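Lecture notes, continued. The same structure-token format from the folding unit now serves as the input rather than the output. Read the line below as a description of shape only.
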């Protein structure tokens, strides 16, 4: 739509050398897509050598055919292993809430625990607050009720930890943090401290 508008205005205002200007615009657009430049901080355009490092992991059935980077598998494996341990050792924990933007983490947790959230991921953002008003479950009340009897784990983005500390009573909860990766940033699990004692 944008390029059509440019050519429309070029034609309408009878700019001199329309063909030359048009060719320069097309050349610029072509250069932007045909000659990408890899920089160290641009992880969305990986080098071929990085793609060769991607591997398949047979540990999780949901993702058995996926080929991902070691840093992605590190995060996925962290959540799978820790949530499995929580399910084995913390019989009081029955539910989870996914307060991250990662649906894969929801899928992993859903193997071991149930969740009453309608959306597969929830964020501490205005958009999600408005969206959640259309569902019957009051997620904030649900979290508050479950935190009182240590029957809930919360999967979170670490940057939201202050939101949780300000809005919920976390005195009986402890944060365990996943390994950092560029793709997943900082994520973790809020688990009951009683659960941590059981795992020692």
């Amino acid at each position: 739509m944008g390029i059509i508008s440019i050519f429309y205005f070029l034609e309408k205002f009878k700019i001199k050398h329309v063909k030359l200007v048009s060719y320069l615009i097309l050349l610029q657009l072509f250069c932007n897509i045909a000659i990408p430049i890899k920089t160290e901080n641009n992880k969305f355009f990986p080098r071929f050598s990085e793609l060769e490092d991607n591997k398949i992991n047979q540990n999780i059935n949901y993702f058995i055919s996926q080929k991902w980077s070691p840093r992605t598998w590190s995060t996925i494996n962290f959540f799978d292993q820790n949530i499995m341990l929580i399910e084995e050792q913390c019989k009081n924990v029955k539910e989870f809430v996914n307060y991250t933007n990662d649906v894969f983490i929801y899928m992993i947790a859903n193997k071991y625990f149930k969740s009453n959230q309608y959306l597969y991921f929830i964020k501490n953002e205005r958009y999600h607050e408005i969206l959640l008003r259309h569902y019957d479950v009051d997620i904030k009340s649900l979290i508050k009720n479950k935190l009182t009897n240590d029957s809930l784990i919360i999967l979170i983005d670490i940057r939201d930890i202050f939101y949780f500390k300000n809005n919920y009573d976390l005195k009986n909860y402890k944060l365990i943090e996943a390994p950092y990766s560029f793709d997943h940033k900082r994520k973790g699990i809020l688990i009951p401290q009683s659960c941590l004692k059981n795992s020692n």
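Point for the exam: Residues 99 and 122 are 5 Å apart (CA to CA).
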